[in-house]
Specification:
The structure holds two protein chains of two kinds. Chain A is an alpha/beta fold. Chain A contains 14 helices and ten strands. The longest helix of chain A has 18 residues. Chain B has a two-stranded antiparallel sheet. The longest helix of chain B has 34 residues. Classes of the chains: A alpha/beta, B mainly alpha.
Chain lengths: 422, 335
Amino acid sequence: MARDLWEPSGRPIGRRAFLARSAGAALAMSGGGALLAACGKPSEPSKKAAGPPLASPENPVTWPITADNQPIAAGLEPERNAVLKLYNWTDYIYKKVAVDDFQKKYKKYGVKVEISTFNTMDEAIAKIRTGQVDFDLFFPTYDRLGKIVQAGLLRPLTHSYIPNIDQAWPVFKNPFYDQEWHYTVPYTVYTTGVAWRNDKVHDDVAKLSNPYEALWDERYRGRVGILDDYREAISMALLKNGITNLNTGDPKQIDTAKQDLLLLDKTVKPVVNVKDYVDLPEGRTWITQAWSGDMNNAQYYMPKGQDPAVIRYWFPADGHGAVGSDLIAILRGGKNPVLAHHFLNHMLDFDVAMENLGWNGYQPPLTKATPEAMVTDEYIPKTLETTVVLPSDFDKGYRQLELSPEVDNLWNSAWQEFKAGA
Amino acid sequence: MATLPVQRPDATDVEAGPPTPPKQRRRRGRRVSATSGARYPRWYWPAFAAPGIIWLGVLFVLPLYVVISIAFGTIDPLFRTPVPTWNPAWWDTTALRTLLGHIFGSDAFLAPAFVRTFAYVTVATALCLLVAYPVAYFVARYAGRRKVFYLLLLVAPFWISYMMRMLAWVNLLSTDGLLNRGLVGTGLIGGPVNWLDGRASTVVLGLTYGYVPYMALPLFAALDRIDPSLLEASRDLGASRARTFWRVTLPMSRPAILAGLVITALPMFGDYFTNDLLSGSPGTSMVGNLINDAVSTPGQAITGAVLVVLLMVILLIPMLWYVRATARADTEAGR
């Protein structure tokens, strides 16, 4: 999923969006390699640039391992006194498990873990491409994977260091976006659905014939939230209309979604941001488009004295909704490839992954992390069992994949019109 | 005072010829220190401007050129990041033309955001002036020994980041926030009002609140400098208090009013997070929000850069007006 506007969940309130989205970031992003580009006439980029193939479940892709970028040998000793550098979304990993526990586990080697953060995938890739940074681990989205592999930014994995991959859902040993897991291991899985407060919204949204329509309900005017993410919002409007191709290039379908979003703006004046996990518990919104992980996290933002059980989440029970997953990969520019492999293995460990879930709300796709286990151990409240992502949801769900530039422009244009409040 | 050039043989730059009027002469002799008569090389005084010029060059002109080069540049076909075109001869105006079409053409879906921005900024700036003028007037004229204290209060908002202050408003304005509780408690309104549901009024009040100190400070500085004897003279000559205000105080504070209007209005035009926090609804989107959206969406950086350039060009108009107005005021004052 193109989660460039995405703000992954985490406890600290406030954070990210505001500064991250400042024009300053644009300048920073445009810098680096681009600044050094030739001052001469720009070479006409061919429309059919030699881009990587667009991976999809119907068209799975195996990324090649090139001669000049081979995996490291098996059985190497971890680097000593190393500083292992993580490059992750803001507030998307529990410091205790990523830093403290890992350092303790590899104390013998004197490792230190450092976390650097980014706010958009563009910002992150631009920085990595400059070659000026030596981050070891990176948390990319799968829609950008092809490009960063093709640009030679990732290091192919040596599987023998990561036995814990067996704990993950089998699909991740051969995901469509990276067949034979040459470059990535899974980090989290999530769904996008509708969340509401059952103390304010009196319909049982989950029981409506088309729960997406509840977001258009005039009774909730001024209390509706929409995710500030062009792919998610337009996808939701497509799904409302029964269109399940969330990567459609059909102008008519995109226009249908756009008209619905414009209508939404007129009828309910939605709040468009990525603070679903704060706005719903605090009562600014009563019903909102939401990410499953954010809703798990929302309980911690409930004002004192209020019952978090009022938060409910709907995702189609048959799994026919928007699903996504996030990944971890090893960067080629990192100085500690062996430790980096050990880190991937660490994060796939059941106990570590569950502790991380308890902090950031996003579920690791591990076989042992069954709905029962997560609910019984109170990682996920019983009332929010619907946020659990099942392997079957993942097989049946619709994914937001990379779009061709032409199609992407159609989506963006529709989004711009909605956001301009025309 | 009318001295002849020959009387200053050391002044090498003085041309031979008929004596010039004293005023011009003084100007020519600038490089001679007024007090000691010491002479400095030609670069000496301009060198004082160097830090400022370097600062502006590196941190303003250069980044601005990068933005313009992006606005007229291309997109990397693989990563969809902007590729600036540095040479103006090869600038590509497609994005500019598309965007102008979206503002003025038949498909003008961006026009409402521009109109809205102007309306919000105009109202908010006017409110800033209405609020700040009496405050500044009071502090300058009537605060007496407490002047420093009040001045501190005026500056106090700067001690807290703008973002934090806006976040505080989100809490105050929420349905169960202090404002609603106060209003309901005193019976002024029947039930809580959802101030944060995408109201233009909330955004305008947020902007006013956020920028009012920028208006108050220049006003205070100007009002404080007005010589009380001028006001006394006005009263002595029979003018009433009101007339003294209209004929003396207000005209003398005009340059400060202009400065205040400009320095509050300009940042408001680019503001986006007042709106993001206090409304978040597309129905109150301002140009700053459009820029912010474009910048944070992959492949849309060019749109963002074009919007920045367009906004700058539009803002040049009030800026030029300000420069002209202050130049005129200077000329009048110099007479």
